[in-house]
Amino acid sequence: DLELPNNLGLSLVRSPCILLALALGGATIASNEHTYCHIQSTSDGCTRTCAFAMAAATGESSAGGKASRVAVCGTGLCGAPLVIQQAWWTNASQCLSDHWKILKQLPSIMGAYVGPAAVDPSLGEKIMLSVNSHNDCPFCTSLHGELARMAGIDEDERSCLLEGEKGGTTSEDADTESTLKEKEDPALPYARTFAATNGQVPEEAEAEMATAYGPEKAASVTALCWFLYWGSLGGNTINALRARFAGTGPKDSSFSSRVFEVAFFAYYGVLFGTIHCISLLFGKLPTVPKGVSAAIGVVLCVCAGVFIFPVGMFGGLWSALTDPNFA
């Protein structure tokens, strides 16, 4: 179970300052050390919710920005070995930079749930699951899996969405996969591309989205991708610290990365603990009307925005000081 931090009120005030201090103090570390590492692992009994068990790790590689792990976890609905990748933040510099980007998306995220550019709740949850098919955050799998069910998406389709493009095809599953692919919305491959490129989607993919939906609704789809991207990286960062305490966390991280993880947990632990509890509650609810799904999305956006805003503002300051292309 997720342990919540003590002295929560004080941590909410201090943690953004800690993140900024780490970013300022760790600038050279951030530029010289990886923030993405890849750990290959296999486990016959692995499931999405236990993917942070790292005892079977067999290899590592690295590249700048965030940390990630790739794992093979059995065979999914669409056949072939199910390969997942988890990513999380490992330094304050990248975390702050991403929060600034996400802060700027908050109005569009709200507009994706209500207003003229709103996305149908069923499609919205498909987008969320498609992004999470790459980053595989257990918190997001649980929450948006239940929200997708409440929006009317059946179990088979939810499973294939979570497998993303990584599932293969067997003869007995061919009809199921073919049917799902035929009705796949253009937003879903876009969402998977968004996750795979950490939001750096090729211009041609952006143009295709604008053609398919129009500029306003395409912006809403992108905003939902950013929302889940934030949630998946955040949830996996929380779990990275939990794994470290359990003795199964990454072994190559620096002291500054470990301090960052503690600060992140102190700030966000209560939010992700609440998400876990809400997911359990949603598991008891039936399918709901579209208006209810949209209202839930608005509440989630507001609650997340309360936490994103202060860190995003610090992130904007940090980006203005360090990024010559800041905008």
How is this structure best described in words?
The chain has helices spanning 8-25, 27-32, 92-111, 121-135, 138-150, 155-163, 174-182, 187-196, 203-213, 215-245, 255-282, 290-322, and strands spanning 36-42, 57-63, 67-76, 79-88. With 327 residues, the chain is of the alpha+beta class. The protein has a four-stranded mixed sheet with strand order 2-1-3-4. α3 (92-111) packs antiparallel against α12. The radius of gyration is 19 Å and the shape is globular. Residues 1-64, 71-84 and 166-174 have low confidence and may be disordered.
Condensed summary:
This protein is of the alpha+beta class. It has helices at 8-25, 27-32, 92-111, 121-135, 138-150, 155-163, 174-182, 187-196, 203-213, 215-245, 255-282, 290-322; strands at residues 36-42, 57-63, 67-76, 79-88. Strands 2-1-3-4 form a four-stranded mixed β-sheet.
